[in-house]
Amino acid sequence: MAKLFEPMTIKDITFKNRIVMAPMCMYQSDKEDGQVTDWHRVHYPTRAVGQIGLIIVEATAVQSQGRISSRDLGIWEDSHIEGLTEIVRLMKAHGSKTGIQLAHAGRKADIEGTIYAPSAIAFNERYQTPAAMTVEDIQETVQAFKDGAVRSKEAGFDVIELHAAHGYLINQFLSPLTNKREDQYGGSSENRYRILRETIDAVKAVWDGPLFVRVSAHDYTEGGMTPDQYVEMAQWMKEQGVDLIDVSSGAVVPARIHAFPGYQVPFAETLKKETPIATGAVGLITNPQHAEEILQNGRADMIFLARELLRDPYWAYRAAKELGAESGVPVPYERGWV
Ligand SMILES: Cc1cc2nc3c(=O)[nH]c(=O)nc-3n(C[C@H](O)[C@H](O)[C@H](O)COP(=O)(O)O)c2cc1C
To answer: Does pTM surpass 0.90?
Structure first.
C-alpha cells in the first residue's frame, strides 16, 4: 500500500490521503473587499474532485492592513463567512478536508495606508517603510487571528494553518533579521516567539480542531534563522498543542535560494526528528515516487503540493496509478481512469 494514499487522522479529522494542496494566493477578490468570487468557487472544488486529501485555502487576511495585495481573500469581518462557507461546502462534497491559512503580511503588505511590522525596516525599495507596532497594535493583531479562527470555525473548515513563513508578519517577529525590537517582543528567541505563542494560545481558546503552523525554516542569510534554531521554537509549538509544522523556507529578507526538487525536505526532517512533531514537506515535489520516498523514509508526514496542482488538478489520479494505489476517482470520471 502506498503511504501517500494511507489515511491519516489528527484529532477527530481523518484525511483520506497524505496529499495536501498548499496555500496559494489567487489575488481574485476583484472588488478588493476580501470576498470569495467565482474564481475561488471553481478553483478549490476542482482540486477536491481531484481527490486531494486536504485543501488549504490561500493566505487569508485577518486584518485589512495585513493583506499582501488589495485582491487577497479576507476574514477580518463577519461578511466574509458566507463566501468561505460556500467553498467549504463545495470542497467537502467531494471528500476533501478543508483548511484555511490565516495570515497577516506585515511589512510585505502592498496596499495603501500605513503598514505594520515589528520594526520600521522596509523589505526593499518597492515596499513602504512600515510603522513599528506598539504593544497595543500587537494585541489587536493577536485578537484578529483569534476572531479569524472563530469565523473559520463558523465557515466549517477542518484545519487552521497559521502563516508564520515567507517573511510575513509573524515570520518578521521570529527572525532576528527583521525584529530589532528592544521590548518583550524582541531580542531573545523567547521574546521573538512571543507573538506566535500568544497567537497560538488565542486561537486554541476558540478552536479545538487540527492546528498547523507554516514556518520558513531557513533565512539563507548570515545572522538569520536556520532549521537547527527552529527546533527550539518547534518544541514550544508542540507544547502549545500545534499538530503539524508545514516546513517552507526563505523570503524574510531578499536572499538567493538554490531550489531543486525536495530542497526543503531536510528541514522538515530535522524538525520532525529533533522536536519531535508531525511535519509537512513542500517545495518542488512533483513526482509521486519522490512523494512516496519522503513518507516511507519518515522524513515528513504529509506532502504539500503547490504549483504542480496548478498544472494538474488531477495529479492524485496519476499518482495513484503510478504507485498502484486507489485514489478514488469520482464515478462520472471513471471511464477516463479505470
Ligand atoms: C501562485 C502561488 C501563490 C502562493 N501563495 C501562497 C500563500 O498564500 N501562502 C503560502 O504560505 N505560500 C504560498 N505560496 C507558496 C506555496 O504554497 C509553496 O510553498 C511553493 O510554491 C513551493 O511549492 P511548489 O514547488 O510545490 O510550488 C504560493 C505559491 C504560488 C506558486
So the answer is: yes
The pLDDT of residue 338: 72
The Cα–Cα gap between 272 and 220 comes to 20
| Upper half-sphere CA count for residue 37 (Cβ side, 13 Å) | 13
Is the CB–ligand 1 distance for residue 68 below 6 Å?
no
Q: Is the CB of 288 under 6 A from ligand 1?
A: no
Query: According to the model, what pLDDT value does residue 188 have?
Result: 98
**Rounded average pLDDT over 44-55:** 98
Q: Mention every residue, 6+ apart, whose C-beta is less than 8 A from residue 86.
A: 36, 41
Nearest ligand 1 atom to alpha carbon 282 = 23
What are the residues whose beta carbons fall under 8 Å from the beta carbon of 313, sequence distance 6 or more? 46, 47, 49, 50
Q: Is the CB–ligand 1 distance for residue 23 below 6 Å? A: yes
Question: With contact defined as beta carbons under 8 Å apart, do 34 and 75 qualify?
Answer: yes
Q: Which residue has cell 515567507?
A: 166
Ligand 1 pocket residue status of 64, Cβ below 6 Å:
no
Please give the number of the atom of ligand 1 that sits closest to the Cα of 307.
27
Angle at 325 between CA 322 and CA 327, to 5 degrees: 100
CB-ligand 1 contact for 18 (6 Å cutoff): no
Angstrom distance (rounded) from CA 36 to CA 121: 32
90 vs 5: CA distance, rounded Å: 22
Render pLDDT for 194-224 as a digit per residue (tens, 0 to 9).
999 999 999 999 999 999 999 999 999 999 9
Backbone angles phi, psi at 226, to 5 degrees: -130, 165
Is the distance from CB of 279 to CB of 272 less than 8 angstroms? yes
